[in-house]
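Regression test case RT-17, inverse folding.

Input:
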């Protein structure tokens, strides 16, 4: 439910913008503010789980997610629509942030050591599948029930989750410890200011003093946040885990893969809907090659890791295919011919699906057993932050290239849309170079693959 909500609104953005009178800036912000809130509050979710217990934190996060989803679905029309919807989406992201770290910790607790790596890989793979199914699910819901349904559907699903979790039999002891306010506040402030400055530069201009001021302020606040965390006896997140090279490399690559995934899903959906003028249902159907490719890559990832006994195989193969596919898709966009977009969609989908489960399994094996809960929180934080930074950067480039009148109407023109794909292609190419240089060349034995 949490991963689906990052992308399920992609198809609903156009009818939502028309219904509420949203600008292109706010339309992108509907997705961005959710992912940014999820990234910023994920460490708070880990802290709350230690202080109040796993299930209590999960229940509260689910309830917050349900209520904020309902509020999103009830967004009024008029001048209040923009701040109302963006605020509700931010709260929805905070609720999701209380759920994700707990879910991974539960899996770590209930599986034995020899099963844990594979269980975490399966969990990451399933989350990935729901992440990529978002636009298709959103197309069906919006076509038959209207755009508000993409939010309101979370209410019965969330209630069902609370009912099921009420019967859970597992440890829920709180570790205790004092809650700290300074670290979360500085972290949230730094991430919001930096990502907002990055996104806003598409409106202000890349050389505007306000852009430099926002980015500099956010970066300095982030440095301060890192120093506070490293010096604390009760750190919000364990940044020292990044001193473990295999873990740090896997997290960095996860960050870099999440960014282009979100970019192509959101901007690919908008291109099909707005530039090509497809219906909602046709847009969802036309996204199936990308979705099927992502799902196939996700499912094959674990097999390749076990078969080849090397993290390099699924990651390097995936990033190479993803880069090639993103470039091919970008080149095909100006023609507006769907048939020429399909090969790029398939290659990009398979390529971006391959690395994530393998990286998830590898990075959790790289840390001591007692640190896996902390490692999961840090991974989730940086993964979601990758999506937020990538979407903000692509959104800024698209806004800068977009026509001003189109901005006001909530439309991304056919000439501006490819700019977002160029950003995605560059990030994938950089990730491929990083993986080729930094990933270990040794084989992973059967013990390392969980076999």
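Golden output:
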């Amino acid at each position: 439910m949490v991963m689906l909500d990052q992308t399920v609104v992609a198809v609903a953005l156009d009818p939502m913008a028309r219904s509420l009178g949203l600008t292109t800036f706010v339309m992108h912000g509907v997705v961005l503010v959710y992912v940014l809130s999820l990234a910023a509050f994920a460490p708070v979710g880990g802290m709350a789980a230690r202080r109040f217990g796993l299930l209590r934190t999960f229940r509260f996060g689910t309830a917050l997610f349900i209520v904020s989803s309902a509020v999103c679905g009830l967004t009024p029309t008029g001048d209040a629509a923009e701040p109302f919807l963006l605020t509700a989406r931010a709260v929805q992201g905070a609720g999701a942030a209380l759920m994700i770290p707990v879910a991974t910790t539960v899996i770590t607790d209930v599986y034995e050591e020899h099963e844990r790596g594979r269980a975490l890989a399966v969990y990451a793979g399933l989350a990935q599948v729901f992440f990529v199914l978002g636009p298709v699910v959103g197309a069906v819901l919006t076509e038959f029930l209207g755009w508000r349904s993409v939010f309101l559907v979370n209410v019965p699903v969330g209630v069902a989750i609370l009912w099921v979790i009420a019967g859970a039999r597992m440890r829920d002891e709180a570790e205790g410890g004092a809650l700290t306010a300074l670290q979360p506040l500085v972290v949230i402030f730094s991430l919001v200011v930096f990502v907002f400055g990055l996104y806003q530069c598409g409106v202000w201009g890349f050389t505007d003093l306000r852009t430099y001021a926002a980015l500099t302020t956010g970066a300095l606040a982030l440095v301060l946040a890192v120093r506070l965390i490293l010096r604390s006896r009760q750190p919000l997140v364990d940044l020292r885990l990044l001193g473990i090279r295999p873990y740090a490399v896997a997290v960095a690559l996860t960050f870099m893969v999440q960014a282009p995934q979100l970019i192509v899903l959101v901007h690919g959906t908008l291109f099909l809907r707005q530039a090509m003028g497809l219906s909602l249902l046709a847009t969802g159907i036309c996204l199936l090659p990308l979705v099927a490719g992502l799902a196939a890559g996700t499912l094959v990832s674990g097999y390749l890791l076990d078969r080849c006994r090397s993290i390099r195989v699924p990651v390097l193969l995936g990033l190479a295919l993803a880069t090639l596919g993103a470039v091919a898709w970008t080149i095909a966009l100006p023609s507006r011919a769907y048939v020429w977009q399909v090969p790029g969609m398939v290659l990009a989908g398979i390529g971006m699906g391959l690395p994530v489960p393998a990286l998830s399994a590898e990075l959790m094996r790289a840390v001591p057993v007692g640190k896996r809960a902390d490692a999961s929180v840090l991974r989730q934080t940086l993964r979601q932050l990758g999506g937020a930074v990538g979407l903000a950067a692509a959104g800024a480039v698209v806004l800068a290239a977009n026509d001003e009148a189109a901005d006001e109407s909530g439309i991304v023109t056919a000439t501006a849309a490819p700019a977002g794909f160029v950003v995605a292609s560059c990030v994938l190419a950089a990730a491929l170079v990083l993986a080729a240089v930094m990933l270990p060349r040794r084989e992973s034995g059967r013990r390392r693959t969980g076999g």
